[in-house]
Specification:
TIM Barrel, 3-stranded antiparallel β-sheet, 10 helices
């Protein structure tokens, strides 16, 4: 059981969550009602006052795209060191530079009131962030109130055996698990320290908790390209959907990414030799384009930031763990949410910063991976931006 480390501080202009006795189910409302969140032995009931007030200003950028999806990196730290994501001797940010759990909640809540309907918690590895359950409990209030459609999480799976049931209880229904191979030796090679058995145990815990699981796999030339079809079959046996992703030129990884890049058009051609892929209108609100897999009844998605970008329909922004808001994964333009938040407790400056971000969101990214151009397109690592 995860112990609550501190009582959550109230949001500005919002009634605080009220701790009640876990042994008194009738105090302050019906026990385990939809307005009730538990973290460890403490129970928090939200007294609904301002959460139902939806701002009339809809977030829309200068290209007419509505922004309804916020990806939030809660930490840059990770217990793996995947070779396409970060260097082996990674230097992580000082903890003092990170937004507190309360600050993350304030920024997310402001975006929700502005029209964001989906929040994905990422990292690094989000489940190693101290206080992450408190943040999920807070976001769960918005889901209960109807302002937020979904809280999702992207994880490497290493901590799922401990936390799967807790995150499900707090309001997460669906998770993405990053896993690039089913070969234990290759898994250790790619993560530089991870144990495949630990992740597989986490996936079993996720299924047992009732979480819907999607496996995210980065397609890597000469590394896992010949096992992607087998992985798709395994996902079908497990009841998982699968998304394949092209590697992206973010951060110095100490190697040449052109050696890793595998266009998903070639992957799809190989899959079609083994599986019957059928058209699908399925969407999760993200960039993946899905097809059905007739033999398994599951779906396979393709995220193609290089070979076939999806910028025209982009509905996303990304908040880093330090409070920097990136309007595009593949561009450096950014707005400092942390400075705006800390300068003005009324949140007026934060809302002004959000308005500014909408004017800065570009039409598209400029990712390139090709021989002779082996440096990263951007210096920041995916673990900082949020994978």
């Amino acid at each position: 059981m995860v112990e609550a480390r501190r009582r959550l501080t109230p949001r500005p202009q919002t009634q605080p969550l009220t701790p009640t006795s876990a042994n008194n189910p009738t105090e302050n409302g019906d026990d385990r009602s939809r307005k009730t969140r538990y973290v460890g032995e403490k129970r928090y009931i939200h007294v609904d006052t301002t959460l139902s007030r939806i701002a009339t200003k809809i977030m829309q950028d200068t290209f007419g795209r509505s922004i309804t999806y916020l990806r939030v990196s809660v930490t840059d730290r990770c217990d793996f060191r995947c070779f396409y994501c970060m260097s082996e001797e990674m230097e992580f940010l000082p903890r003092k530079d990170l937004l507190s759990i309360e600050e993350l909640d304030q920024v997310c809540s402001t975006f929700i009131k502005r029209g964001v309907r989906k929040i994905r918690l990422t990292g690094g590895e989000p489940l190693v962030r101290r206080g992450i359950m408190e943040l999920i409990a807070r976001l769960g209030e918005h889901k209960d109130s109807g302002l937020l459609d979904e809280i999702t999480l992207t994880t490497n799976g290493s901590q799922l055996a401990k936390h799967a049931h807790e995150i499900k209880r707090l309001g997460v229904e669906r998770i993405n698990v990053s896993m690039d191979t089913l070969d234990a030796d290759k898994f250790f090679e790619i993560t530089r320290r991870g144990k495949l058995d630990q992740v597989l145990m986490g996936l079993e815990a996720a299924k047992d908790a009732g979480l819907k699981v999607k496996i995210n796999t980065v397609a890597l030339k000469a590394f896992n390209e010949h096992e992607l079809s087998d992985m798709l079959g395994w996902c079908g046996e497990q009841g998982f959907d699968m998304t394949m992703i092209e590697t992206m030129p973010l951060g110095d990884i100490g190697g040449d990414r052109s050696d890793q890049y595998l266009p998903l058009s070639s992957v799809r051609a190989r899959l079609e030799a083994d599986w019957t892929l059928t058209p699908s209108d399925h969407t999760t609100g993200g960039p993946s384009k899905y097809l059905g897999v007739a033999e398994t009844g599951q779906k396979v998605g393709f995220i193609t930031p290089l070979s076939d970008h999806f910028c025209d329909s982009c509905n996303r922004m990304r908040l880093t763990c330090t409070g920097t808001l990136y309007m595009c994964l593949g561009q450096d333009s950014a707005v400092d949410m942390r400075a705006a938040l800390r300068a003005d407790p009324t949140l007026e400056k934060l809302n002004t910063a959000i308005d500014e971000s909408l004017t800065l969101k570009p039409k598209g990214h400029e990712f390139v991976i090709e021989p002779g151009n082996d440096g990263p397109a951007l210096k920041r690592h995916m673990s900082v931006t949020g994978g």
